[in-house]
User: Fold these one by one.
Assistant:
Number 1:
Amino acid sequence: MLADIPHTLWFYFIFFVLLMIDGLWCMLATYNLLRMLIGLEILMKSVTFFLIVAGYLSGRMALAQAMVITVIVIEVVIVVIAAGLILGFFRKTDTLNVRATRDLRG
Amino acid sequence: MTVLTIVLVIMVVAALWASMTTLLLRATIGLALSSAMLAVAMYSLGAQLAAIFELSVCAGLISVVFVSVISLTQRRPFKDIVKYRRERLTRFWPLPVVLLIVGIGLSFVHVPVQIALPLPGGDGDVRSVMWNLRQLDMFGQILILLAGVFGVLVLFKREDKNAR
């Protein structure tokens, strides 16, 4: 069982890296604020997935689940607050383009 | 190829679709599908409680929030969408190529992993870990939820134009 762990870890690590690249690209290659939030969600998914894999491989799944539940709760609050901010920004500027934030005061 | 591998591949493809599609509503559906596949993967790895949280909260609640915001913000005519689609394609076409190259490259490369893992063993029930071992986390979660509720009340409130 223990001898298999590095290979298993590498297998899951590939999917973690792919999700990470996808999320980062989605955040960096767009000007739409909502799409940036979607990219952040994909990044959070990759982290959640790797936390569960770490718990599975180390045999401490209860601790990993507790961490993941904490991450999910924080993720929801981040998304809701960010959605509210984006909505407020849209009401002021009538666009979701991130380049319009240059006109903000401050 | 195991079922878990297929589920993980669908998860990555759904996330890729979510980041590449032009319409934000389709992107939300892709994100929800990716969450659902992650929940299946979590369940098959033995994290049942976290899988239920992922499925109900990430695939359900967050999708509802996204759809609400999209319905409140999208006002683009179809002609603009076609033009925008072409412009987006120039920025996003390398992404599937990069993912394919990285995925295939990493599956052929073998890096020796030197990690010291503890011996597998039960660490108790997830509820006892949450309520007894990670009490500070629970306190932080309650505070963050309260902050989220106040944030929603402040940010989603419509401005009264006659207030001044």
Number 2:
Amino acid sequence: MEKILVIGELSDLAKKLEGDLDKVYQIQFCGRQLADVQAMTRIVKPAMLIFYPLDGKETDREIMDWARDKCKVPVLLVTTSEGYQQFRDYMEEERFDKLLGPVNKEELQQKCSEMLGKMKQQTAKTRSRKRKKTILVVDDAPLMLRKIKNILDRQYDVMLASSGKQALESMYKKEPDLVLLDYQMPDMNGKEVFEKMLADGDLRYIPVVFLTSVSDRKTIISITKLKPADYILKPPDQERLMNTIQTVLK
Amino acid sequence: MELVITLTTLVLSAFGVIGSTALRLHYNKKIAMEYLAWAIFSCALWNLAKAGSMQFLFENEMASFNLSVLLLLFLPLPFSFYLDEVQRGRYRKEYRMMRAVLLTAIGIFFVLHLAGIRTFVENATYILVLWTLTILFMCSTMALDLFRGRIKEYSLVAGTLMLVWLMAISRELGYFNRGAVKTGTILPFGMIILLLLAAGNTFHELLDMERKKQEALSASEAKGRFLANMSHEIRTPINAVLGMNTMILRECTDAQIREYAMDIQSAGQSLLSLINDILDLSKIESGKLDIIPEEYDFSSLIHDIVNMIGVKAKDKGLALDLSVDENLPSRLFGDDIRLRQILVNLMNNAVKYTEKGTVFLRIRGTAADDSVSLDFEVEDTGIGIKEEDLPKLFAEFERIESERNRKVEGTGLGMSITTQLLDLMGSRLNVESEYGTGSRFYFTVKQKIISKEPIGNLKERIHANAANYSYQTLFTAPNAQVLVVDDNEVNRKVFRNLLKKTKVTVDEAAGGLECLEMVRKKEYDVIFLDHMMPDLDGIETLHRMKDLPDILCPSAPVVALTANAVAGARERYLAEGFHSFLSKPIDPDHLEKLLTNLLPSEKIDYSGAQETAPIEDDAAGESRSCEEQLPQIDGIDWKYALLYTKDAELLWSTVEDFYRLMETDADQLEQQLREADWKQFQIKVHAMKSSAASVGALSLSGIAKMLEYAARDGKADVVEKVTPPFLEEWRQMQELLKPYIEDGEENSPKREPDYPMIRQYLPLLLDALEQMDVDGADAIIEQLLGYAYPENMTSAVKGLEQATANLDAGQAAEWAQVLERKIEEER
């Protein structure tokens, strides 16, 4: 389902659009503050914006400026014909379009699908770029998760899981290219997770790198018997970690 | 029929003789079959004579008979040699005696016959008895061996041999019985079979030997290769260690640290010399070590050795007595490096094994037209060597009286290398030693003379020199530009530091391609190129550099840097177009001398060489610059943290995360302590240990580690006693960090709370946490924290912040509910 960010006065909009678009698109509402809009765009990553300006004053223009300069998704302006006069200058941009109110349900839906369709065609052309590899990091310590994510973020898509159960769930949802697995976790330890993966037809081929501070011989031997792709001791050295991941992914 | 088979035996045994002689010459090894073939050959001749065919050759029947008897008499000799070989010399003494008895008997009877006292036939009859006894003796030794199962591989041959003998004996007996048994045909048959069996055995043995030889050779080759590679691999890191350590020695003023560094230096040096020894030995063994003659300064050779050994001797309280012929020529042509190695080895040993007294080095020479024979003599007043131990002196890895000399360090390779080097130089080492009073080693080496100018009184000069020896930079060259290319960062740093006092500007390139970039941008006076680099090696880089049209310094000398100091390397580099060659570990003096030669003279300033240059280590500088970005916090070792996370910014964000988690961590641990849930406690404290370590809070991490082990081992009392102070420390650290982290947050102006918007954010936050979308969650919490909340909501927002930091969706949901309720109330 495509995500649409709707910007406007929250109380009125919510009721008005609830029935109109909710079934076809995933709608997220957002207030008319630039900071909010920016944050929401970053969080929701919408496929398009629908903007209900109020009076064409400073805050509205700020949002429009930002949408023109910084944002790459289509923008639909829904306003009255008088209100539209103030935003005329933005309409030269191809991504921008308008609907002059009062607007009914069908019109809005049609416009949305039209704009999104156009966008899709364009992105389809540019999407042939190489996909980033995905790495699932499993660790019960949030600090470690965050730290590793910080390290890996530049080169990989990082998925996180804070327990073995969560890790397996997210693996079923989307298979990562590599799993960084801690050993010592509550409920289900890393070895058990690995064993579950090995028992599974699809997951058994995902390379697993153990990243743990457990250094007693017995555990290490019992883990290495399962033939993980590598075994790194915590705290991980940034370079070493990257190198290991690179070689394993090759 | 008898004639044909006898002739065949004759031909076959002749082939056997020729074949085995050829094999013996080829393998340079005794071939047992040779004797057997001889024996069978003469046996066949005898048989031929017996068969009566000799009448065709000799008219005289008497002569024919005599010949056949003679052949028969000497028959046991080759047989006994053969058996001796086959039985691996087990009955050597007995066989020797038996042969002696037989030969003397034959000799005595021959003399009697020639003197006309007894007839030949009479003699022969007596000797034949002796002959039969001999054969019986040989048979019995073989039967003994067979019985004891000692000659499995020869059992067939031995069996056949015994059969043949029995036949021969019965035939001889038949001779006395006037032909009762006819063996004339069977005997040669038996001998042919015997010959074939023996040949088969011999071939089998030779093939076996060849195979074993190949195996041994390949094993030894593999060993040599391994040693050479290994020592190369080990030398590179030692290079870095020693280089860095030199910097410490030069720059550190703390006496204690200097002392530690001195220990590193001496341990490192001995490790390095050990590696060099092993490398040398492997090179000698594989024949790769060559004597490379070069022009050299004789006095500086002696000077270096005395300097080197003098220090050690002085440390042990020994006197070093040097006497050098003043008329020796000063410049010679030879392999000074190897000569130095030999002398250093001998002198080192002398110092090592002498407790008190004097070590003497005497050098004399007799000059001819263009060469001089140098007599070197190293004498000590040490423990000496027992006469029976002398052979051990030259064996690899052998150490004499290892019990007594346990304290003396060394590998036992030195003497072996020394003798082998002297071998290569066409000389040999002589030893005279008296156990308990001292040893004297001496050898003579011939060297060509380049300049006859006498070296003069070396002793005085050395003393003068040693008195004012201290480290001093030769020159400064602030305008000089040098580029060093090495893929190893530490090596580059060492290099740069070695030149720091000379004020030369050193630029670094991490690889060949980068080097090619840099020479297009900047003009360099000298370029140092490492040989072994991953993308583009030194030689390839040099070639490409020469092909580049737009290089700014086409005539700059290029020096090869390499840890690979194999014989011939120097020539190879020069042939590839390098200007010079510098082996790693880099000798600072060497480097400076080389630079004085290579840098344009107008850029060198000899006057400014001084020791008071401001000392600033680059390595420290670098991590310091990283550290400078981080605040000084008691209990946090940034250096340690930066070891693992090299980026200060990244580290700081970790610290922020750490800070946010500290409170919940402490609370949870406290709760687990109360509930005495040791399993969970262990897991929690383990996590705290890692997180503290990752920001460099080492003492906290240390206590956590202790607690983790205590919890694991079920030591509840320790855990209960240590946890409260640990938590106190932990919270103190939190307080310490607080101003640095919350400061930045409070700076941003807060907005009026926009409740509808906040309510939009909350489900998004929960969703993001559910999905483990950290970036999303962080972005939302950042927005949520941007509002100025009324008093009654702050705790809920704080809780949300903590939950987000902990990536705890459940906790976040609870706090979100609380917040929702509060917002509802507000309305």
Number 3:
Amino acid sequence: MRNLFRTTSFRLTIFTAVLFLVFVIVTFGIYYWIAVSYVYQRIDEEMVWKIQTLTQEYQSGAFDPSDPDLVEPGTYLLLQDASGRFIAKNLPKELDVQRWLSQLLPESIPMNNASKTFRAKAVSLPDGSRMVVASELHDIHVVNEFFGEVFVWILVSIVILSSGCGVLVSTITLRRVGEINLLARDIMNGHLNRRIPLRGTNDEFDRLSMNLNLMLDQIEKLMEQVRRVSIDVAHDLRTPLTRLRQRLEGARRQARCMEDYERAIDNALIQNDEILETFSALLRIAYVGSGVDRQRFEDVSLTDILETIRETYEPIADERKQSLFSTIESGLIVHADKKLLTQMIVNLLENAIRHSPAETQISMSASRTTGGVMMVVADTGPGVPEVERDKIFQPFYRLEPSRTTSGSGLGLSLVSAIADLHDITINLSDNCPGLRVTLFFPTTSTCKR
Amino acid sequence: MNSGSRASKPGETTILTKPFAFSELKARIEALRRRLHLQMIETRLRLGDLEIDLFTRKVSRGEIPIDLQPREFRLLECLMRNAERVVIRTMLLEQVWKFYFDPRTSVVETPISRLRTKINKGFTHHLIHVVRGVRYCMDPDA
């Protein structure tokens, strides 16, 4: 229950209730003021009429001070002639007649004393006489009582209703927040696949739950990636290390002369270098992924980079009986880290060269397009099956036919990391036959001048 | 892929990151020391009967001119400047190609073999030696 009062929704309800109360009080006040004014107006009208009648009677000589029905109960009269003699006087004792008369009130005023409230009106007659008519404000008391009672009831009902609403709304809120809290605990305890149930109402809780669920999906995906990379690293490094160990063991057992040992050591060094290279590649991917290199970005000529690469790789392709074509537009400038950009393009091109047989045609092109620069590296080699296209950027992922070729399986992961760093979009498609890699450099990354 | 070494600006500061091979560190230190010694502008480099002119970009061996591609010329120049010393593949990649990583294809091997063929054409004595696959050395006496 204490939790209930400490919820935001309860406080909000109470706040709203207080505001509503103020609103009711103001409305009530205005209504009361109008009602009281109306009562006053009626009393005043009656007194004016009384004064007029009595004045007429007095002036025509028909005035009889001893007439018991001269004034109604609750109404009082005072008549004084020019010499100061009281002709009629039935004002209650409580009223200070002298003060009234000395002030010669032209308008009606409320008169208060200990027990009763009066309203009085005084007039001076042409012959010097003065007349005062006073009325007990009994009607006003009735109005006050009525309003007071109603007001208390309204106050009580508002307090009860708003507290009830607060408790109700808070309970509903607490229940949904409670569900989320319970689930969060559950997830912390290792059930990362749990999700917050949606009610389909698309209210703020549903939207919050939806976003939390999406966040959980992302976290689960990342955790899965980390887990898989750790396993892959362990697996991919255990294999060459085991092989290295077997070779050294073999040399230890079988080597008979100095040359045998030297050969074994040379082989061990080469294998060792391969393992180190895998580590370096992993570190490089992590380094690129951290985004540190972004500070070193500058405007570099993509055309120059591609020309250098073309010139370097033409003989390599030649040697493998492959042909390398290139269509490179002049003057292409991109905002990038030159070394990383070169490495990314070389990795893609080398993939095309290394995983394609002889007679393959490899093409490299770059041109301006709407919103940036488009670059394509395409080959007519074996290609990548559609289902595997997303996976080849994952660390250590290798297509079945290329399992036996040398390489760490990290080349495309690095390409992906470098592309991410530069906001470059990579798209893989079928070159019919072969693989077509399309890189799009958006304008934001192409030139920041 | 990555050679484990990074140069912030080619020819200025070379940073070797761990892990690195001791042989690589040694080769790099020697290259730096030589660069300090040879600060004067050389226009001709000579090694045995091979001579290259850095100004006219002409190469000749024993009076016979040799025609080289620009990249081959820079490769030869780099090897000549480090004559009688072992040059590592990654150093050539950085200095001749400005590649700060380790390509997986024969980016260095193919031009080196072409260069060797061109330089040795008509001669029996080899000038460029390949040491254990990834290191090169120019030595007239070897």
Number 4:
Amino acid sequence: MTKRAIDSQNIGSSLKRYKGVTISIAIFLLFTSGVMYSATLISKQIHERQVQIDAAGILSDNSYDVLVAVQSVHQEILEQAAEHDGHEHGTQEKADHERALKEYQAKLTDTVRSFDEILAKLEKGGDYGIMRGADRVVALSNPEMKKALKNVQEVWKAAKPGVQNLAGYKHDSINHDLLHNTSTFLPEEQKVIYEEVDKIIVSLNSEIADKTSTLLLIERIGILLSLVYFLLFVGFFMRRLGKADEQAEIARRETNEIMQTVNNGLFLLDKDLNIGSQYSKELERLWGKKDLSGKNMLDVLSDMVESKENLETAGSFVNQLYNPRTKERLISSLNPLVRSPMNVINDVGIKETRYLDFKFNRVYQDKEISHVLVSVSDVTDAVKLEEKIQREREQNDLQLEMLGSILKTDPRMMADFIENTEKRNKNINEKLKEPVKVQSDFFNKLLFIFREVHGLKGDASALSLQGFVAIAENLEHTLKELQSRNKLVGEDFLPLTVSLEELFSLTQTIGDLSQRIIGNNNQTSSTAQTGNAEPVKTQLNKFVGEVAERNSKLVDFTCIGMDNISLDLNIRTNLRELAIQLLRNSIVHGIELPQERLDKHKLASGHLRVEMSESNDSVSMSVQDDGAGIDLEKIRQKLAEQGFHSQETINKMDAQTLIKHIFMPGFSTRDYNDEDAGRGVGMDIVHDRVKQMGGKISIATRAGAYTRFTIVVPKVHY
Amino acid sequence: MPTIMIVDDSNVIRNRITRGSEYIELEVVATAGNGKDAVKLYDLLRPDLVTMDLTMPEMDGLECIQNIIDINEDANILVVSALADKATGIRALEYGARGFIYKPFSDEDLFNALRELLED
């Protein structure tokens, strides 16, 4: 779905949601404006009538004013006439009368004009400028009022000529008849006018009363309906809100149920890596921790992970999920919390290691990344299974490799190897069973096991049983670690027995394999298989080549007399194994690196030679290299470091004494350990073995020139 | 046709990504064997996409990403690396890369990543 489609749908749904409200508000507004309109209209009508009443009142007042003015003018004229008829007055008196008359006449003219004006306005409508400013008088429309107005007009029409006559009267042009008529006629007419106007006012007032009560009614209905609407509205929305709350409650309960039952650890992380308020119950179990809401994920995990760096990386990773530039799917491979080993307190309160997978997913709200959803699952079983499969695969590879080695190796030598290894196994087991009285017994045990394992490694390496070498080497690591401790207890040997078990069950396997493959051959044709197997010379050649390569040395190897099959097998096997230790020793410690040799004006490749020869009653074997010779200073230095002797004693030691130390257990001049040397085991094994065989070993060396080991053993069986 | 620049010190990888890019119809406008060349070429050609190795001579991938982002902060950079250290990969994102795929990668991985980066 495109973004635009989502938008329009959103708008559509919100319109729908508010449709009811919109319509009801529209109806309400329409209704309110209707009420207001009619109220305004009626108020206007009332106001019009009030203005009409005012006008009518003024008309009534004006009619009275006209009457008074007429009477004043009339009186004045009559007085003047009487004086004119009676006696002559002075000019001053006459002038006073004249002025008074003019005054009364002017007033009369004014009141007449005003009366006319009001009368016309009540009839036809017009601006009302006397009392109410800009207000307009609306013409009377009610027929009854019109009739009353008409009556007024008729009376006025009849009386007006007389009144106008009075207003225009001059002393010399007096019409006495008319004068007389006017003066006697007016009070009655004024009364009629007064009564008719009163009728109009009464009828206007009753109209106002009607309109006012209508207005009141409309207002009451309006208020009542508004109240009803308001109540309905509130009620409706309260119900709706209630419903929404109910839905929210249901949703919350559903979320809760999901969180209680889901098999993964689920939670939301905010930008600061704080855990959200709702998380699945499983999370507490997986992490072995409670009350996680609001806590920082990294803080919670900090005492569980093995690598703090990894945790920091996880923090940066989550930050990158909040970075809108990055692509969620294209960065998931950088998630460091995959198959993370974590130390967890389990349900029964015991610490255990679990492998946990963390999956992080962006959560969007309005197209913004609002949270990161984290799903944690326990993959311990999967990891363990994989490890097991991997081990089995390695075991298979090992067996296959060994199969190859067995096929290539002299079956007698293989038989010797198996026999030797079984012997070693027995020795080690017996040693382990020996009771321990003091701490040094533990360390003696360790040393013994170490030598056996080291010897075994040498044997295996000579037969190119690389898998075997690797296992023996791991064991050596473990043993070395134990040796470096200050104090040992019986329990420390436990992991050792497991590894040893593994090593020797492997021996068993090889034994079986070689039995199956070669054992049968052996029965059919012993000469044939001897021919098939590699001669010792070839084996040693290969061994020297491998060791030299590992140590970056160039070696030119000569092997003489090692395949003398007329000799006793036991002696041959033993000497071959001794040759292996000595050859290795020469390559690692004797022969220098090519550049070093060139600097010393030697050939780049060192010469290494092993020779076996026999006399009547003894067999001798020598191993000679043209390397650096034995560095006496280095032996002194190591001796000082290892603390076997005091510095003073060391300084006094002569060459022979010093050299003897290389046969001491645990002595090595190499600064680090690897497959070939450096564990301080090797030369002591050689020494012990020669002693076992009833023979002797001697060393000849010259610094910078050569080293030669010579072993002489009696032919008799030891 | 969208354009792409491929930065990797191994010509085997460069050829591999080139072939993959052409297969999904991207125009390979440049390839570079070190960070320095990559920055120059980016400034000149402004490709729509960049694939970036992290360990290279002259100028390494992290520095190169920073330089390219300085030129154009909207640059579209996919890191293609064999490094085992995830923290360095995340640093590349902090410097402005938008995605990360591990070497060795399948054609599918590469296609998906390039297509996703071209989406917007």
